[in-house]
């Protein structure tokens, strides 16, 4: 009853929207009660349509009355065609297009009824492009023409860009325009509409002329048979005016082919519970079509399934609803994704700002690091300059010592001035001792400076280790700084190694100078011996004085204290004279 109520509401909706309900609602209600075979309730009708605020245009409205007093009382024992024709009469004049159509008013009425059958269950009523395609295909097939899919695709694209579907009057105008029935005459189009109307609205599964054998006189008479979901009716002719009988179908019925007999061909038998019917088709093809159609109808009755066209319509609706639900779910997911994307964009923007702040901090840290690095480089350069000056001084001192040694050797070679050379040799020896001490102090200072450098490098190394322990975000940058400092450390280490080598070289030179001094001392001693021997100064070894002995380069007791004082005065006088 729910499906029947929905079908009735669609037709009533057209009539309802076409009337001035303040005055014509009573007329519509009387007509509905008449065609639907529903008992009239004048009291409820007058009460509902009285002229006050509770009338049809009030909050109470017309639909509550329609559902309560009319539709709930419908039993199904009414003529659907007459019901639809009454609703059509009320709405067609106001809505039907005034432009000339290639179809008659009767055909337009049938298209309107088909529209109500195929339209969606929502108001205002429309027929979606999929159902338009289904209807046009059925009409084209009934006309025996070929379906133009490409033409309809273009029409569908143009339709989808402007609206969801067509109204009943737009569908009538589309069919009546001949856009999809070019080359067909009005009669062919009318027959196609009638055939589709019979199938979809009147549930006519098959119809045609066949011979039927009588039960009493056993004679064969031509009848017009009409197959519906649960009955086969047969008439005198196809105008359906003179009905001769019905064959009630149920799940217990069956149909079977019979061999030719009594001069009749293409025979088949319809068996029911109470009686059987012998039928003769015009040819074998018709016979097979009728047998197949009746078997299909009986199978549907056994399964309790609706007619094929209604089942197909329901499946198409379910498919559209499923696709719509999937589309809505997809739109919901897209909105969720969009929302998530917006949130992610906000998070990325926040992260970007944080990164910019971190970059600013890193730039500030980099600026400080560069400033520190420049200061360290300046200090390092200053230290290098100092080391260079120290090395130059050492070279000058070594050169001076070399010159002094050369002068000392020159004096030793002069045999004419033995004493003078000896005195100068002693002075040079004393100066060499002082130089030795100076070189030793210089070496000690170099060692101290090397230790200071090593301490400073260790301090840099510790700073580098502390820098390595900074945050992960600055790790890569600090790694680069560490590499630069390591390179600077390696350069400093190389410089220290170079200073170490120079120190070793200075030490070696010092050792060489020392050896030369020892050799000079030996030579001086040998020359002293020669001079003493030459001048008769060699004295026999005698017991020394009890006074404290003096120790010189020649050993203990080489000179007395008086001799040493006399010699010192002589050296000072010579030195003053030479200056």
TrEMBL record:
Residues 309-530 form a coiled coil. Keywords: Cell membrane, Cell projection, Coiled coil, Cytoplasm, DNA-binding, Membrane, Nucleus, Phosphoprotein. The keyword Magnesium does not apply. PANTHER family: SWAP-70 RECOMBINASE, SWITCH-ASSOCIATED PROTEIN 70. Its main location: membrane. The lineage of its organism: Eukaryota, Metazoa, Chordata, Craniata, Vertebrata. The SWAP complex consists of NPM1, NCL, PARP1 and SWAP70. GO terms for cellular component: cytoplasm; lamellipodium; nucleus; plasma membrane. CDD domains: PH_SWAP-70. It comes from Brachypteracias leptosomus (short-legged ground-roller). GO terms for molecular function: DNA binding. This is Switch-associated protein 70. It comes from the Eukaryota. InterPro entries: EF-hand_SWAP70_N, PH-like_dom_sf, PH_domain, PH_SWAP70. It is found in: Cell membrane; Cell projection, Lamellipodium; Cytoplasm; Nucleus. SUPFAM superfamilies: PH domain-like (SSF50729). Residues 203-299 form the PH domain. Phosphatidylinositol 3,4,5-trisphosphate-dependent guanine nucleotide exchange factor (GEF) which, independently of RAS, transduces signals from tyrosine kinase receptors to RAC. It also mediates signaling of membrane ruffling. Regulates the actin cytoskeleton as an effector or adapter protein in response to agonist stimulated phosphatidylinositol (3,4)-bisphosphate production and cell protrusion. The keyword Cell membrane applies.
């Amino acid at each position: 009853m729910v499906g029947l109520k929905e079908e009735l509401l669609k037709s009533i909706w057209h009539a309802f929207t076409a009337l001035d309900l303040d005055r014509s609602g009573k007329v519509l209600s009387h007509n509905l009660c008449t065609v639907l075979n529903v008992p009239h309730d004048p009291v409820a009708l007058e009460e509902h349509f009285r002229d006050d605020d509770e009338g049809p245009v009030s909050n109470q409205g017309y639909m509550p009355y329609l559902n309560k007093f009319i539709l709930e009382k419908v039993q199904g024992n009414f003529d659907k065609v007459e019901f639809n024709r009454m609703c059509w009469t009320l709405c067609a004049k106001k809505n039907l297009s005034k432009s000339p159509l290639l179809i008659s008013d009767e055909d337009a009425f049938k298209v309107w009824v088909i529209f109500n059958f195929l339209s969606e269950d929502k108001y205002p009523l429309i027929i979606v492009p999929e159902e338009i395609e289904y209807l046009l295909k059925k009409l084209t097939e009934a006309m025996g023409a070929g379906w133009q899919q490409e033409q309809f695709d273009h029409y569908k694209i143009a339709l989808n860009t402007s609206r969801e579907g067509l109204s009943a009057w737009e569908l009538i105008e589309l069919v009546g325009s001949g856009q999809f029935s070019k080359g067909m005459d009005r009669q062919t189009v009318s027959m196609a509409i009638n055939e589709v109307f019979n199938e979809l609205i009147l549930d006519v599964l098959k119809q045609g002329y066949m011979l039927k054998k009588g039960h009493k006189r056993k004679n064969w008479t031509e009848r017009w048979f009409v197959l519906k979901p649960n009955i086969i009716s047969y008439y005198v002719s196809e105008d359906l005016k003179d009905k001769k009988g019905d064959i009630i179908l149920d799940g217990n019925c069956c149909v079977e082919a019979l061999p030719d007999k009594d001069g009749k061909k293409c025979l088949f038998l319809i068996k029911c519970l109470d009686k059987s019917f012998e039928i003769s088709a015009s040819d074998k093809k018709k016979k097979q079509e009728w047998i197949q159609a009746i078997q299909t109808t009986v199978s549907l009755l056994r399964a309790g399934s609706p007619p094929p066209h209604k089942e197909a319509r329901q499946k198409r609706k379910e498919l559209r609803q499923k696709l719509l639900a999937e589309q809505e779910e997809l739109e919901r997911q897209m909105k969720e994704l969009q929302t998530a994307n917006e949130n992610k964009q906000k998070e990325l923007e926040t992260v970007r700002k944080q990164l910019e702040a971190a970059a600013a901090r890193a730039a500030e840290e980099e600026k400080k690091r560069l400033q520190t690095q420049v200061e360290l480089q300046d200090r390092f350069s200053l230290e290098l300059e100092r080391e260079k000056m120290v090395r130059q001084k050492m070279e000058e001192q070594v050169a001076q010592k070399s010159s002094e040694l050369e002068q000392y050797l020159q004096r030793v070679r002069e045999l004419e001035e033995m004493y003078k050379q000896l005195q100068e040799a002693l002075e040079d020896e004393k100066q060499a001792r002082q130089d030795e001490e100076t070189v030793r102090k210089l070496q000690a200072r170099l060692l101290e400076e090397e230790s200071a450098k090593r301490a400073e490098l260790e301090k840099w190394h510790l700073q580098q280790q502390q820098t390595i322990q900074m945050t992960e975000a600055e790790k890569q940058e600090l790694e680069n700084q560490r590499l630069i400092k390591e390179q600077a450390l390696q350069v400093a280490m190389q410089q220290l190694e170079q200073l170490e080598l120079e120190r070793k070289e200075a030490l070696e030179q010092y050792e060489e100078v020392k050896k030369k001094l020892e050799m000079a001392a030996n030579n001086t001693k040998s020359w002293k011996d020669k001079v003493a021997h030459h001048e008769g100064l060699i004295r026999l070894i005698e017991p020394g004085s009890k006074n404290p002995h003096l120790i010189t380069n020649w050993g203990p007791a080489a000179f007395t204290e008086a001799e040493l004082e006399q010699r010192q005065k002589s050296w000072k006088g010579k030195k003053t004279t030479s200056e």
